[in-house]
Amino acid sequence: MAENGDDSRRKVTELADQLTSARNALDGTERDMAKVRLAHGQHVQAAEQARQPVKALDVKCPGCGALVSPQRTGAVVNGYRAGTFDCAACDVTFEARWSGGTDPVVTVREI
Ligand SMILES: [Zn+2]
Q1: Alpha carbon distance 18, 24 (integer Å)
Q2: Domain coordinates of the chain in residue numbers?
């Protein structure tokens, strides 16, 4: 009987081990699914940003560093929009080109 009891305990231990590894596998799958969902969400966000027109943007004045809103903006050319700016603080007039997205690329030229 003692051997049978050991045998049963061993089986229970084996089953418990199998259950643990099954749980770990399930946890891993859930983590992977969360990663896939996150990556998909970021992809959709990036695609939406790419579709958005390049908006008017406040650009830092090359003279004093103040943020200036554009006086006029042109059409989007090759993903960039250009505009002319007049800084009220230091009276510098400048042109800038900028791309769309959350982190636009901006180039500034004094005129
Ligand atoms: Zn300025």
Answers
A1: 10
A2: 1-52, 59-110
